[in-house]
Write a structure and sequence with these properties.
By secondary structure, this protein is mainly beta. The protein is about 15% helix and about 50% strand. The chain contains 4 helices and 14 strands. The chain has a 14-stranded antiparallel sheet, with helices on both faces.
Length: about 290
């Protein structure tokens, strides 16, 4: 049985748990964790009031220290059928590139199959290789019984685990928010909490809304919303509020920039390419 989701704390949020889980081999450099975090965040901070995404949506991000490129990450949405049900198949991929691969090789893949009508996940796949740290897990959700079949393919194990009502996986949770959170009424300082099912447990995740800003990008000046996820301090990040994300203040809610203040410096993920948007992409004249 999984534990009941705890009340939110900086030490027991999804970010802190994931970082602690991955930080078992200190000889590996931080970067092999970063693509995971950026993949997670780019799906996490994308909100809208109507169908914000759809078939054919695709993003590409450059992960970099200043001018030095460490890797790339992509996110893609496609129509699919799973067990006779119409779903959105969301797939994410993160890899280090060039000389970075010699120091901290990363090859991560994430997939979520999301019900088109109810915004709930039916299947979640996590297959990663981060400098020798590997996982290959598939989770199938039964929302009628609130049980999930967790298949650890590396260990050859299958376990039935209960999950809380309305729980999402780490990808579907934020595509759900894209369609259901009203950002027009959100106020500076507001926070958003929700439950996510990850591996065999449910976790509490929190975001804080920091306000609005006009951001200079390669596409032009864009009106943005700024969010900050809470993370565990003292391991990878300097403090619990060291991640900041800028997303477009429109119906798409595209993540444009993600900044992480790490113990070894500042790292960024910048949107470089996109296609298949459901709504117009707005550039401000200011």
């Amino acid at each position: 049985m999984n534990k009941t989701p705890s009340t939110y704390s900086a030490e027991f949020c999804i970010f802190g748990t994931v970082v602690a889980d991955h930080w078992k081999k200190p000889q590996y450099f931080n970067m092999k964790k970063v693509l995971f975090l950026f993949f997670f965040i780019t799906t996490a901070i994308t909100f809208a009031q109507k169908q914000a995404y759809g078939d054919g949506e695709w993003f590409k991000f450059r992960v970099h220290y200043g001018v030095v490129t460490a890797g790339y990450a992509t996110l893609e949405v496609n129509n699919a059928i799973l067990n006779g049900k119409e779903v959105f198949h969301v797939s994410g991929e993160g890899k280090t590139t060039g000389i970075s691969r010699w120091f901290f090789g990363v090859e991560d893949y994430y997939q979520s199959y999301i019900d088109k009508k109810n915004d709930v996940p039916y299947r979640f796949i996590r297959k990663i290789d981060e400098g020798g740290y590997t996982k290959d897990i598939q989770i199938d959700f039964n929302h009628e019984t609130r049980t999930a079949l967790v298949h650890n393919k590396e260990q050859g194990s299958k376990d039935w685990v209960t999950f809380s009502k309305d729980a999402q996986d780490m990808v579907s949770a934020f595509y759900y928010l894209r369609n259901n959170l009203n950002v027009k009424t959100i106020k500076e300082g507001d926070t958003v909490d929700m439950d996510m099912f990850f591996d065999k447990k449910s976790y509490r995740f929190r975001l804080k809304f920091l306000g609005r800003e006009v951001l200079r990008t390669k596409f032009g000046k864009i009106n943005t919303l700024i969010f900050r996820p809470y993370v565990e301090a003292g391991r990878v990040f300097k403090e619990k509020e060291s991640l900041t994300v800028w997303v477009t203040d429109d119906d798409n809610k595209i993540p444009l920039l993600i900044k992480a203040d790490l113990a070894v410096g500042s790292l960024k993920a910048t949107l470089t390419e996109f296609k298949g948007l459901q709504h117009s992409f707005k550039i401000t004249a200011e």
